[in-house]
Amino acid sequence: MIENAITVHPFSAETLGRLICPDRLDNIPPQVDYLARYCARLGARTLVHERHYMDRHYVDEYALYYSRMLSPPPNHVARIHFFKRDFDETQFARWLERSTVSAADREAVQAELSAGAKPNDRDGYLGYCSVRPVTSVPIGRTILSTPGDDTTGLRRDIWATNRHDVHIANLCLRVDGLAFQQQDVAVGACATAALWSALARSARMDGMRAPTPAEISEAATRAARPPVRGLLSASTGLTVTQLCEATRSLGFTPEVISAMRRPESFVGALHAYLQSGIPVVLALRGSGLGHAVAATGFQCSSSEHPGLSGTIPSFSSRMTKLYIHDDRLGPYARAYIAPFNCRVDATTGDTIEGLSCEIEWPGKQAEMWLVDSAVVPVYPKLRMSVRSLMALAELTAGLVEPLVGPKRARELRVDLRYERGGEYLSRLSGRLVDPNVAGTFVRRVSFSRWIAIVRWHLAEQELLEFVYDTTDIVRTAEIQNRELLRAIVCLQDGFRKAIRPIADELQVLTG
Amino acid sequence: MKNEREKSSPSESPPSEPVILTADAVRKALNKAASNADELNEQLREVFALTDTSAALRLR
Known about the structure:
The structure holds two protein chains of two kinds. Chain A is of the alpha+beta class. Chain A is about 30% helix and about 30% strand. In chain A, the strands form four sheets. Chain A has a six-stranded antiparallel beta barrel with strand order 11-12-13-14-15-16, surrounded by four helices. In chain A, strands 1-2-3-4-5 form a five-stranded antiparallel beta sheet, with helices on one face. A five-stranded mixed beta sheet of chain A has the order 17-18-19-20-21, sandwiched between helices. In chain A, strand 15 and strand 16 form a beta hairpin. In chain A, helix 1 crosses helix 2, helix 4 packs antiparallel against helix 5 and helix 7 crosses helix 8 (about 240-250). The longest helix of chain A is centred in the last third of the chain and has 23 residues, at about 385-410. By secondary structure, chain B is mainly alpha-helical. The two termini of chain B are about 35 Å apart. The chains are: A alpha+beta, B mainly alpha. The interface between A and B is large, with 76 and 52 residues. Strand 9 of chain A pairs antiparallel with strand 1 of chain B, so a sheet runs across the interface.
């Protein structure tokens, strides 16, 4: 008879290792070691182990590959849940008993289990890790909370995550995170895992079901299979072209950005997508090898890197650190990026420029890669690329600089992002400077499903936003600025009057 | 095209009133900025494209 068993354990690296890979305690995979360190950093105190869980991502791998083995593994995974608070079997049994009394009691138990360190915190549930019954590659779909801000006070911007409802017995708990899993080598490789993580966010953002690794591998190799041995050529790695094919056949448009020229534009695009909550698959090069990771967030330093400064001053030039899902390591691993510029020919003075990426390995030397390119799975009707958005930002700079005067123009900074139109309007509450105009504005303005925002800041404070329709590309900046601009939103009271003539000339609504 | 604008720390600049531009000044500013924007758009063409070397890179 199929039966689940839920048990409670105090958190420790040893217990986690014993629960995930009891048969190879002398050779713990690096991913398990990473998870133990990461969960300790999040403040994990207690583990709850579920013996039997049907995970559709593993079931697909099972159907495609494992079920055809002479001696197949089980078709289900186990799950390990991580909690910030201390509790034991007896307490957990009491909670489950109470949760069956009434809906109100169940909610009270859920609130107790989710309680954080401070009275109103609800971050006590840290997420879970699925354990495949495949000893060599045990880490299946894993969703863990993002790290909080660091001790130096620098903010971590990890935007590309989903909110997940997680069920344990009759309880429903919540966690915000991006799905991670170790590549299983049979069905997929690192590129499959990276694209799978990225699509888990992009698909759910647009109301679609996230594809499984097996679906990604099949989509990637549907067109042309290279002459390599294996059930799925994805198991031997995917090319960047195959990543694009998979993205397209799963209903998204792949935006490809090269990092081998103009690192400042590459980083500008990376910044724009990540703060729009759209994960970016990074293709890395090193020692003749290629590797792929999914970037899900970033951290900025307090100053700008001169090598990342573009045509207009942008917050992206402060980006120094990425948070990546690296299937060889774990979720939200730290990677430091830096532009380089070196002379390759002393006589001609020819130089090459690019971006390095140093992945931090716990207890080991950091690993150095060169960023080759990025593939971004984008909603198909979001046609305005970051390239177009950068051109429009350049155009708006010509308007904003005279507005603030030459002295203060030095304090201007821009950031670019995409957002769903409805969410943008909801987020305007409390930001618009004139409540009388604001009511009319939200009533009259009409947006595409996705909008693009060129946000200008003055002395680190939000100043104004140019809001664009994203359903066309930019061929001629001035013409399309007029056609695609939907609104100019003033975010500093003193500038309301000054923005009016610009809005009038461009015949656009202002809020 | 790297940033050619002069930089300074925010504390160096005194606060000043916003400049109210005339309709003509807005049109002139737009015209002037448009050529920069189109040039940038063209220059970025090679960055936002799949190169042959990237296309063939096998990620494993």
